[in-house]
Amino acid sequence: MINGISINYYLLLSAVLFIIGAVGVMARRNSIIIFMCIELMLNAVNLLLVAFSTLHNDASGQVFVFFIMAVAAAEVAVGLAILSMIYRNVKSIDTDLLSNLKN
Amino acid sequence: MLLGYTITQWLFGILSFLSIMFALMVVFSRNPVNSVLYLVLTFFCIAGHYLLLNAQFLAVVHIVVYAGAIMVLFLFVIMLMDLNHDNEPQKTWISKIIAGIAGGMLLCVLVGSLKGSEQLGISQYGSSQIGMVKNLGKVLFSEFLFPFEIASILLLAALVGSIMIGKKEIK
Fold it and tell me: Pick from B46, B88, B99: which is nearest to A27 by CB?
């Protein structure tokens, strides 16, 4: 229990948020939306890390969240640079058109 | 106490509902700019959850880094590519349905694995000072000093990499 809220509810909330992100990755064609859904999945995991860190009274979980934020920032910077370069060459960021590696 | 629930439980319920609704809107809205704005709202709800969990510093950092920096980066790129139209190409219905079924099955697996678990241990809930800057700084700069330095190298590599990728031509 954290402030009268069972950890199971946090587990459920994180699972639902993660799965919304996963469905977004599978169901959308716009690469930027796919990136945003990945951010959503990362945030679901962050929320669970903070919940368990408060549950166990241990600060390590919150420090992990800092590192995840740093990695997410790096990932977004490189990913958006790649996307803008793809857009310059192909004039589209539709994932169904980006299948050059297939043949 | 309100209808048998405490204020914290009400706040948790409202914030959870809002974050799930906004997350759904991120996936289902047609316009990418609307998606970004809904994602910012989701992040604010998650920051509210951090406040409920006594992680005050993390809540502030979350708002500054995600809503303030990363989402602005997304908006810049969307504006740069001129993508704020409603008529982007959609996946076929069959693949959308398959994605929904796959997600639902994953949800079933996760919830089913929770179902059997006991109520996890009760926290001591003595010191709520864990989320404070002083405590986090002590842990970060003593126990996690080496990963902290690695993270700085990672950010430098990302900086150099994105500049190299974004350049017009590499000579």
Answer: B99
Q: Which residue has the higher pLDDT, B146 or A1?
A: B146
The average pLDDT across A83-87 equals 87
Question: 3-state class of A30 per DSSP?
Answer: strand
CA B125, B131, B133, B134 torsion: positive or negative? positive
Report pLDDT digits (tens) over B8-27.
888 889 999 999 999 999 99
Whether A20 and A36 have beta carbons less than 8 Å apart is answered as no
Rounded Cα gap, residues A40 and A44, in angstroms? 6
- Say if A77 falls within a structural domain: yes
Tell whether A62 lies on the interface with B, counting CB pairs under 8 A.
yes
Residues of B in contact with A34 (CB under 8 A): none
Domain residues for the domain of A53 are 7-90
What is the tally of structural domains in chain B?
A: 2
Query: Is B77 found in the same domain as B150?
Result: no
**Which residue range(s) make up the domain with B48?**
1-85
Q: Phi, psi (5° rounding) for residue B5?
A: -115, 150
Alpha helices in A30-100 (DSSP H): 31-55, 60-90
- Residues B139, A56, A54: CA angle, nearest 5 degrees: 75
Q: State the best of A33, A67, A93 to mutate against chain B, taking most chain B CBs within 10 Å.
A: A33
Q: What's the total number of domains in chain A?
A: 1
Distance (Å, rounded) from C-alpha A78 to C-alpha A97?
21
Contact between A70 and B100 using a beta-carbon 8 Å cutoff: no
